[in-house]
């Protein structure tokens, strides 16, 4: 059985050694603290521990510092002596080591491209990403329903844009089936899609789409793969960042089977800058996150939220985070003091110290911690000296990153985008075929009109005088000849596809499909 993860401990000034139990690590967790207090290092050592235990990890690298996981630490590092001293204090035999890393990047610059299809993202998350109103979200749901019914694959943004154009053109008919589909709402969605494109969101959507199995690999030496998402540029579009991670979490929830209580997780997911997920989020989305967090642990996935303040996480979600590392919080304002008190109250009290005071007093690389015991009960809070990392502290250079990417199992798999036939091309063909049919119908009509003119002109110059009776009879005969033929041609057109389109145009769709 793989070893549990040692987080830290201490000497006389600190509490008992703190260990994250593998079979309780799918009960989720929280890493919180103000900027510069050591959250990134804590995330790094937890990723190392899971990898050593054969558990794959997915995390986002917001500042670029976590790329050092791919390279072993060294004695030449400026903090080497401090690391050795800390290791001696907490009883750790520190051994420098590197870890298997795969780099990912939505923009394909600092990692392998990572994509999802529009259909996989779904209307709820897209509405959140596009900041749509309830009415606009309803129209987007109609668009997705139409795509399903019409067999139109939604793969990338141009597919969604083409579908919205079609929805706008057929708004009257769709309103009769699904309720009001206002052109103004369609236009608002299209404008938001342009904003998303300008932010680089079109890089997220398309194929080949990410296969979840590629995030859950274990190397031949037994170490779990650490998947690092380059997020420094992505953080310029925080809503895109949060929506993508939530989509990934939802996909894991939907696709993975139930496994009960495993000895260790199949995957651990770190959600850095977690407050971005909940800022101004509608209740439906918060409820979705709460549901996923509650149920995904039975699918052997542990979720760890990383944020500055526990108050950033809704109470229903926070109550499910059993393993906690709380770095220092500063209380400069009345609001800060209230949040500090609230954070302290989420821990089991330790009679040896005041939790709120300890949260203010711990220094960089220190924390107050509480982990689940073997019975799944949170232990009392302890002051903890966090262990040093085995891998390099800080980012790696571009040549090293490029070499790792070139040797990765993922090299070449996602690098070249695919553009197979989907909604955009299918709707384009429909429009082209309709235009050809209309053009052909107009040509036939013009030809018939020309023949009728020629016929009338020919009659005007007929030789010989005709009696009134004969003229009348001839006119009737010619009517029953050419006129009857013309009527037959027109009726045949009206009975065909072109005819149905003409009738719909005149009568507002009342005869659609007849």
In short:
The chain is of the alpha/beta class and 514 residues long. The protein has helices at 39-52, 80-90, 118-130, 134-150, 157-169, 171-178, 183-198, 238-255, 275-278, 283-295, 315-318, 334-344, 355-361, 398-406, 423-460, 468-495, 497-507; strands at residues 5-9, 18-20, 29-32, 57-61, 101-105, 112-113, 226-230, 267-272, 301-307, 323-326, 366-370, 382-386.
Textual characterization of the structure:
The protein folds into three domains: 5-115 and 207-406, Rossmann fold, CATH 3.40.50; 118-203, no CATH class; 429-507. It has a twelve-stranded mixed beta sheet, with helices on both faces. The longest helix is centred in the C-terminal third of the chain and has 38 residues, at 423-460. It is built from 17 helices and twelve strands. By secondary structure, the chain is α/β, with parallel strands linked by helices. The model is unreliable at 475-480 and 493-514 (pLDDT under 50).
């Amino acid at each position: 059985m793989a070893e549990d993860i040692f987080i830290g401990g201490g000497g006389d000034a600190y509490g008992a050694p703190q260990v994250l139990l593998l079979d309780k690590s799918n009960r989720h967790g929280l890493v919180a603290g103000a900027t510069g207090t050591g959250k990134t290092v804590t995330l790094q050592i937890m990723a190392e521990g899971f990898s050593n235990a054969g558990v794959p990890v997915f995390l986002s690298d917001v500042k670029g510092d976590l790329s050092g996981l791919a390279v072993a630490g060294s004695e030449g590092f400026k903090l080497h002596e401090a690391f050795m001293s800390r290791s001696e204090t907490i009883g750790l035999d520190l051994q420098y080591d590197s870890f298997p890393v795969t780099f990912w990047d939505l923009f394909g610059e600092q990692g392998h491209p990572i994509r999802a299809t529009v259909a996989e993202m779904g209307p709820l998350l897209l509405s959140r990403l596009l900041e749509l109103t309830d009415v606009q979200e309803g129209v987007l749901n109609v668009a997705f329903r139409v795509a399903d019914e019409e067999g139109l694959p939604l793969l990338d943004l141009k597919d969604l844009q083409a579908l919205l154009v079609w929805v706008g053109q057929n708004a009257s008919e769709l309103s009769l089936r699904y309720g009001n589909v206002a052109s103004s709402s369609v236009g608002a969605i299209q404008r938001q899609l342009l904003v998303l494109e300008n932010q680089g969101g079109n890089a997220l959507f398309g194929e080949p789409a990410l296969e979840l199995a590629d995030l859950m690999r274990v190397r031949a030496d037994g170490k779990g793969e650490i998947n690092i998402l380059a997020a420094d540029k992505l953080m310029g579009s925080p809503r895109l960042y949060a929506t993508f991670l939530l989509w990934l979490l939802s996909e894991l929830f939907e696709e993975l089977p139930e496994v009960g209580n495993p000895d260790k997780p199949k995957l651990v997911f770190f959600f850095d800058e977690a407050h971005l997920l909940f800022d101004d989020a509608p209740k439906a989305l918060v409820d979705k996150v709460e549901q996923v967090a509650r149920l995904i642990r039975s699918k052997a996935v542990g979720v760890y939220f990383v944020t500055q303040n526990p108050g950033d996480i809704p109470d229903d979600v926070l109550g499910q985070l059993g393993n906690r590392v709380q770095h220092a919080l500063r209380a400069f304002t009345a609001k800060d003091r209230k949040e500090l008190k609230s954070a302290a109250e989420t821990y089991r009290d330790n009679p040896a110290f005041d939790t709120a005071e300890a949260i203010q007093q711990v220094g960089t690389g220190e924390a107050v911690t509480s982990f689940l015991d073997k019975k799944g009960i949170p232990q009392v809070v302890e002051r903890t000296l966090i262990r040093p990392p085995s891998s390099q502290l800080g980012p790696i250079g571009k040549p090293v990153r490029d070499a790792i990417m070139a040797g990765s199992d993922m090299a070449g798999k996602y690098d070249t985008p695919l553009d197979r036939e989907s909604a955009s091309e299918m709707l384009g063909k429909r429009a082209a075929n309709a235009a050809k049919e209309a053009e052909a119908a107009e040509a036939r009509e013009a030809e018939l009109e020309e023949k009728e003119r020629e016929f009338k002109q020919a009659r005007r110059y007929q030789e010989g005088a005709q009696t009134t009776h004969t003229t009348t009879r001839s006119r009737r005969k010619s009517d029953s000849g050419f006129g009857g033929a013309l009527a037959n041609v027109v009726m045949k057109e009206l009975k065909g596809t072109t005819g149905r389109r003409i009738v719909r145009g005149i009568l507002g769709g009342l005869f659609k499909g007849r």
